[in-house]
Design goal:
It is built from eight helices and seven strands; from the N terminus they run αβααβββααβααβαβ. It is an alpha+beta fold. A seven-stranded antiparallel sheet has the order 1-4-3-2-5-7-6. It binds flavin mononucleotide.
Amino acid sequence: MEHYLNRLLESRGWHFISYCLLLIILAGCNSGQAPKAYSQTVLSEVALPQPRLSSSISLEEALLKRRSLREYSPRPPELAEVSQLLWAAQGITGKDYPFRTAPSAGATYPLETWLVVGTITGLEPGVYHYKIASHSLEFAKRGDFREALSNASVFQQHVKLAPATIVLTAVYERTTERYGTRGGMYVYMEAGHVGQNICLQAEALGLGTVPVGAVDEQAVAEILGITGSNQVPVYIFPFGHKP
Ligand SMILES: Cc1cc2nc3c(=O)[nH]c(=O)nc-3n(C[C@H](O)[C@H](O)[C@H](O)COP(=O)(O)O)c2cc1C
């Protein structure tokens, strides 16, 4: 054991060991349930199809082809495609601890994922919250909020025209409580990781998206129904089939 520890220390150093210890302590403190950051009536819960773990397109091809898409075919994406995008964004991939598809500073997971639906096969128009632990959607609000979301994004037309939009919100305290003000930057770095996962997964599905940072936080919070909660909208991703 001592020999093993010495070898580990030589090869990786104290920082790596302390980071592992921190994650083990964290795993003990946190049972893996995502903390509820809002209190909202859930109209119903929609089970999502299991994500596929293979693709006909390589990672390199997806990287090569990815381009921001601002025009979409009127053909509605399928529920399976939505499931795949949400899983790529924040799905659980850890075996012993609920680590996710995207890295997170100290596994603090400050981001929540929402879906504003206009036309998706198998989903009513409305606002949905992605429940990561069960890979399902909580139906939070009924109605087509795409125009309102477009108005809240400095009237960007692609937000109105896209069949649906993924919205990332942040609960900053989850990360800043541990890392102080630098934690605020970590939240944005993480949103970038999640965003790239969404972009590449969209490409692999033959869909397209565009990262949209120009949003009025308060107006988007109103659409989601999270005004007054500790969640702040950060980044949105309208998506759809290529025209
Ligand atoms: C942080 C960030 C914010 C962005 N905000 C917007 C936006 O509000 N509206 C928009 O149409 N595109 C937005 N974009 C997309 C960029 O315009 C786009 O990535 C850039 O033109 C490069 O093109 P490409 O994505 O096709 O490579 C944003 C991209 C990033 C990374």
